[in-house]
Design a protein that fits this description.
The structure is a homotetramer of 263-residue chains. With 263 residues, the first copy, chain A, is mainly alpha-helical. The first copy, chain A, folds into two domains: 3-135, Four Helix Bundle (Hemerythrin (Met), subunit A) (Up-down Bundle); 150-252, Helix Hairpins. The first copy, chain A, has helices at 3-11, 19-39, 42-47, 49-73, 85-91, 94-102, 104-107, 115-124, 137-148, 150-175, 186-197, 210-227, 229-247. In chain A, α1 (3-11) crosses α4, α2 packs antiparallel against α4 and α9 packs across α13 (229-247). The A-D interface holds A 33, 36-38, 40-42, 120, 123-124, 126-127, 129, 132, 136, 138-139, 142, 160, 187, 190-191, 194-195, 198-204, 227-228, 230-236, 238-239, 242-243, 246 and D 151-152, 155-156, 158-159, 162, 165-166, 168-170, 172-173, 176, 184-187, 196, 199-203, 206, 210, 213, 216-217, 220-226, 228-229, 232-233.
């Protein structure tokens, strides 16, 4: 086995010998998330500014090395065996794009010193959490569920948009005159529709006229079920996928590359 | 094939040659909805008043032409083949009525210049969104689901009304004295019942006496399930119908008129 | 057929010849409910005080006559054929007790002229709505469902009470010091628990300390499902019962007394 | 039968002869809970301080005697028959640990007279409610359900944590500038995420910018289903377990020790 092949197996998840490296990367990702979350707590950030910056630079370096190694070793995987096109095709897989985005600040130094822009970039590092998808099958399952139910979800979103347009327009019609500053326009009223139809009900906007309350009641009783559908489909699909995975054990692994075959 | 027949196939949805016309009408409907929504945002409306009016007149003209063509060509459809009674029967189908209502402002010039009346009419144009039902099977499915479960829905609504009367009366009984301005009367208290039993919970009205809170707790724990039923039945039926439609592919189309047979 | 038998069949629901009488009683019950609801709207009540009183006296008279006729004719029903014990056993069925309670003000003149007492009695007339149970099978089904699932419901209520005690005590422990006027005592905190665990969330009481919010989050994520169970069981059972009833048509009717056998 | 064996059967639940003792202990536990709840209502506590203290001392004594007897007699149970290791192994079962914790104040006199510490200890007595688990099979079932679905629950919690991190970061990003005192930091924003995704919606924090409201709407529509999963899995599993238990009657009891074999 060449060095490249040995490194590939070390860095690939779910493969015994390199488990320690997997765990180290997982811990680094988690620490990144925790650091990002704590950075937004001002007193903590002010006291540890240098530590946070050092940790960020360290993470960027590790993630960059990880990315380069993956790109170098991926040709061991039969699916990406061609030295040029295989590497390009790998670089375009969702997980590789996430890996690249995680080290973007290294590649594209901020074009300006605009404080606000830097802040946005800093918080968007949260998407590094998606690097965890490689290591946890539960997360991959969720991705499969979304892809699987795409058709139903699109159909339902079409219905939701029409319901949203209808209910917001009706509510705007009956409540605008009595609460012009709350139901300012139909786009504003859409916030009411969503807060009501998901049953969140913050209480920042609600109808106060008897007619508005009656229409709101009918909309709520009939519409809540439709807005619960996307969340319900994803949830049910996920539970199903977990159960299927559980009963299918021992899990299938490719005998050639040692990769998980999670359908 | 006569001109009438050729035009019929062009304008009928889901039929290959006229796909461009379908898409054009769908886009026009969507633009109508977007225009209506944006019109209610005052700064946008004030700046583009003429554009909005021009677009409305254009839409009215197109929808009117569409309606006339449909009425002229419908006799090609074997179900409405009689030149007189067939056209009348078609004009009384729900979709044709929606088409007619969409061009109503053209037929019935506003009987008054009452600003408020004009505003109501303008917003009611939102029901043009229902013209989309012709083009999307997901929307027709929802209609079928409602028709299919009519019996159950009526039974449940009867139960809901009785629960509503009971819970509102009890809550009025125990809370009216302590919050006379909130639980003013039983009709007012019904708003509390609906907001609570749908679990929206805006927080505009809630019991404050220990007895009221105890009764509210019991009503909530037992009643929430009943108010979730209509929405749940519609939602479950819709998901079922989508799944059935998916598995039934290739879909059935009438060999004579080219229309979809979506049961 | 004797007069008693003929009257019995006229007044018994679901029996063709007396349908008009059934409909008349149903309308009278509904008018009673509407009157009771409108009475609590002060301006309406003040303007129509005499009309409301006349209608109440009329209703009491009709319901009293109805009760007496039922008691007289019930011996036609084979289940209550004995002239004395049959009538007593009938008088103790839930529906007959509801009928009796509906005319209670006639039998027990108010022992005092205490305004508050009279108000309570007046609103409790809402339970006349339960007289509708005799005429609508959907309502009887709901009763059967509750009786059927009694065992599960009791088990779940035990669990709910323990969850309620635990979550209220914990929340009181962590929030009492910071919000002594909101989380005054554990009984007060129970209101928070119920409002949260049913996901109603009025927003009148909520934790503000980080520890309290963390515990509230865990309680909510784990506990919401348990509080949704009673409502869900009743709802699912009701839908099931409606479906079963639908498929069992033509419905079974006793060949002797013409009564519905809805199991 | 030796005295130890006879006492064992008297004190073990679900065994006919000692039913009175079971009921007495259940009542004592319930009275403990009620006392604890009422103690937090200041006027009640101030008036009955001595009574509460006497009752607490009485309960401690009874629970201590109960614990000692259980430890003494447990060797009758074949699973814990060894006089030394059997007793130690029994003492480490969850139910025995709860029993021990219930009498902890007797064993560890408060190390300080710090009023706050005493208050915390007093309220933590609420966990005595878990002593009821021994006597009610519905409660044991819930424990089994949690143990059974541990794997799924852990997978889902991982997904929830990632969703929580993502949604809180995004919302902090778009709302922090407009509501710096509400969306102070990402940890603070997590409270918003949980309140929204469980659909509780207190209304203490909510987005006010159009962008924030749009992102909140998408998060809510897609994420609510995921946060409903743990509660739904526990609830569904519990209902299933109740149904299974019901159909399995007559229940299995070990012929040797008289204990319930609830799988």
């Amino acid at each position: 086995m060449s060095l490249r092949e040995r490194v590939y197996h070390l860095i690939e998840p779910d493969y015994e010998p390199g488990r320690i490296i997997d765990v180290a990367i997982i811990i680094l990702i988690l620490l990144n998330i925790i650091a990002l979350i704590l950075e937004t707590v001002e007193p903590i950030y002010n006291l540890n500014r240098t530590a946070f910056e050092l940790f960020e630079n360290f993470s960027l370096t590790v993630f960059a090395i990880e990315y380069v190694i993956r790109l170098w070793t991926i040709t061991t995987n039969p699916r990406f065996s061609h030295p040029v096109t295989g590497r390009i095709r790998f670089a375009l897989t969702p997980l590789a794009i996430i890996d690249l985005l995680a080290i973007l600040p290294l590649l594209l130094p901020p074009p300006s010193v605009d404080a606000r822009f830097i802040r946005v970039v800093r918080i968007l590092r949260i998407f590094r959490v998606l690097k965890l998808v490689r290591y946890f099958r539960a997360l991959r399952l969720l991705g499969h569920v979304i892809a699987d139910r795409k058709e139903e979800l699109v159909s339902i979103f079409l219905v939701l948009l029409i319901l949203l347009a209808l209910s917001s327009s009706l509510m705007y019609l009956v409540e605008h005159e009595d609460q012009p500053e709350v139901f300012t326009s139909i786009p504003t009223t859409m916030w009411w529709s969503i807060v009501t139809l998901t049953t969140v009900g913050y209480g920042d906007t609600y109808p106060i006229t008897p007619l508005g309350q009656t229409i709101a009641a009918i909309i709520a009783i009939l519409g809540i079920g439709m807005f619960a559908l996307p969340a319900g489909i994803l949830g049910a699909g996920f539970v199903e996928a977990l159960a299927a995975q559980r009963s299918e054990e021992p899990e299938h692994r490719c005998p050639h590359c040692g990769e998980w075959l999670d359908t």
